[in-house]
Amino acid sequence: MIRPRILVSNDDGIHSPGLSALVEALEPLGEITVVAPDRERSASGHAMSLHRPLRLVEHAPRRFACDGTPTDSVYLGVHHVLAGKRPNLVVSGFNLGSNMGDDITYSGTLAAAFEGTICKIPSIAISLEGSSPWRFEPAQSFARALAKTVLDRGLPPGLLLNVNIPPGSPSSYRITRQGRRRYGEAIEVRKDPRGGSYFWIGGSGKEHEDILGSDCNAVIDDAVISVTPLHLDLTAEKALEPMASWMIEGFRPSPGAKGEPNGVHTLANS
Ligand code: MN
Q1: How far apart (Å, rounded) are the C-alpha atoms in residues 174 and 226?
Q2: How many A from CA of 142 to the centre of ligand 1?
Q3: How close is the Cα of 145 to the center of ligand 1, in Å?
Q4: CA 92 to CA 95: how far, in whole Å?
Q5: What is the whole-number distance in angstroms between the Cα of residue 97 and the centre of ligand 1?
Q6: CA of residue 103 to ligand 1 center, whole Å
């Protein structure tokens, strides 16, 4: 049997102990290739470097550091490093810090998995709730088991998995929905040595809303692993029908490609 090819990336950088722990966990399942940012790129979102050159440095066989973003790393991994040897799975992590609720669009960890999904490869992002000292064994066991499941079953097109692991030794998981939590709105204003102001944004305090079935409730309140299926199609399906009756002055609604009024394609007829 051909060993599956697994592309691993992250946003904490190639030297993160979380990345090494993830590679160690997945190694029994297939041939691992790492393409990861050469430094910390947390909260870089789905940014892509279109206006500057990118470099890849091979630290060891199949271990590449990229001086771009997590998205650049996966892009180069799929289309250059593994060109003609398409990976069967992309896994991003282990991020040192959870990515739940409103973290998702800021997260470089998730963006690496988004990019894998755009390349039509089953993709998983895995993040750890908690703080140093990190214990990787429970996350390693779950990552290996989940990756095996996804390699066996595949994922529906356009769908990725966002996994968050609570501290301790969780032995159960829950399929969850994206919750809600915000960083504080605090801005620290300080002075630099020349008298100019500078700003630190993104407070450390994070409060989550109590949403039944959410990732935050599972991981923070109930200490179980959350597995949230996400898709990149951000269309608000529920808004299509109500917005079809909008009248925007001076313009007329155009019928959709299939002749539906205002171009509305509901799930039922798409
Ligand atoms: Mn990170």
Answers
A1: 5
A2: 19
A3: 23
A4: 8
A5: 7
A6: 11
Query: Residue 265: is it exposed, middle or buried by C-beta count within 10 angstroms (0-12/13-18/19+)?
Result: middle
Cβ-count burial 212-225 (b if 16+ within 10 Å, e if not): eebbbbbbbeeebb
C-alpha 246/C-alpha 33 separation (Å) is: 50
Specify the amino acid at residue 31. Answer: E
In CATH, what class is 5-179+209-231? Answer: alpha beta
Q: Residue 98 C-alpha to ligand 1 middle, in angstroms?
A: 9
Burial class (CB within 10 angstroms; exposed 0-12, middle 13-18, buried 19+) of 6? buried
- Spatial separation of the C-alpha atoms in residues 230 and 162, rounded to whole Å: 7
Q: Cis ω on the peptide bond leading into residue 28 (within 30° of 0)? A: no
Q: Are 236 and 267 in contact (CB under 8 A)?
A: no
Domain ranges of the chain: 5-179+209-231, 237-267
38 C-alpha vs ligand 1 centroid, how far in Å? 13
Ligand 1 center to 96 CA (angstroms): 6
- Compute, in angstroms, the gap from residue 39 CA to the centroid of ligand 1: 10
pTM: 0.92
**Closest CA relative to residue 10, chosen from 88, 108, 81:** 108
For residues 241 and 190, the answer to whether their CB atoms sit within 8 Å is no
Q: What is the mean pLDDT of each run of 10 residues along the chain (270 residues)?
A: 92 98 98 98 96 97 98 98 98 97 95 98 98 96 98 96 97 97 83 96 80 97 98 94 93 75 48
